[in-house]
Amino acid sequence: MQSLGCIRIFGAATFFSVVVSASSVLAANGAGTSPMAAPPLTQPAADQTKIQVAQAGAAVADKPVSFAENQAVRGAKLFREVCADCHGESLRGGLIGGPPLLGSAFEKKFAGGAPASALFGFVSNLMPPDSPGQFSPGEYADMIAFILRENGIAPGAPLPTNADALDHLIVEK
Ligand code: HEC
Fold first, then answer.
1. Rounded-to-integer distance, Cα 114 and Cα 15, Å
2. Residue nearest to atom 37 of ligand 1 (CA)
3. Are 30 and 36 within 8 A, CB to CB?
4. Cα separation of 41 and 61, whole Å?
5. Of 3, 42, 43, 143, whose CB is crowded by the most CB atoms within 10 A?
6. Structural domain boundaries of the chain?
7. 0.85 exceeded by the pTM?
8. How confident is the model over 141-155, as pLDDT tens digits?
């Protein structure tokens, strides 16, 4: 039951691996033992921790992504300086070959229910193509806040930079 619940809300590689390790721990406990039986004394404490982590993880609900307006304002400036030649100032595609960051192709990949970690991971690992990773996580969050705002996502709580938190923030137009 636990894993069914988990699979329904999974969307994050890190979360998935926690579930996998929890189910292998459960399998290692053996089908023959009573569900109420205390774990053997030899059971490493870490295994118990993994089960607790998986249960805690299952309780973290997915939420719609949001960003703070000031992140988007800073991000707009950086985007104009660094990204707009390729993607266009209004994100509709630029002069030197970047795809639009608005519209159906973009939405299908990043704004149709994907976790914000997908967009954050793509941009912070691959953009700009000639020197990926050159910005701080906070600066990447600013630029992503700008992209989200231009896609019509409403402002609210700041966009985090932490991968686990981003895994539970859903981008949906
Ligand atoms: C030299 C041109 C260039 C610059 C500068 C550039 N990009 Fe890109 N970008 C591309 C190209 C080309 C792709 C398509 C790459 C691919 O699909 O593998 C892309 C893809 C993307 C995507 C995914 C779009 C999609 O639908 O797949 C995002 C988001 C993105 N870039 C954001 C940024 C941000 C933010 C910056 C500034 C930090 C930036 N890019 C700078 C050329 C550029």
1. 14
2. 83
3. no
4. 33
5. 143
6. 2-61, 64-172
7. no
8. 999 999 999 999 999
Find the 24 Cα to ligand 1 centroid distance in Å: 39
Tell me the fold of 64-172: Cytochrome Bc1 Complex; Chain D, domain 2 (1.10.760)
Q: Residue 42 and residue 51: Cα distance in Å, rounded?
A: 16
Q: Ligand 1 pocket: which residues have CB below 6 Å?
A: 82-83, 85-87, 96-99, 101, 105-106, 109, 122-123, 127-129, 143
CA–centroid distance, 164 to ligand 1, in Å, is: 23
**Rounded Cα distance, 19 and 91, in Å:** 37
pLDDT one-digit tens code per residue, 65-120? 999 999 999 999 999 999 999 999 999 998 889 999 999 999 999 999 999 999 99
User: pLDDT value at position 173?
Assistant: 85
Ligand 1 centroid from CA 126, angstroms: 8
CA of residue 124 to ligand 1 center, whole Å: 10
**How distant, in Å, are the alpha carbons of 17, 33, 165 from that of 13?**
6, 31, 13
Q: What is the mean predicted confidence (pLDDT) over 14-27?
A: 40
Region 43-52: mean pLDDT is 55
Identify which of 74, 87, 92 to mutate to test ligand 1's pocket (most ligand atoms within 8 A of the CB). Answer: 87
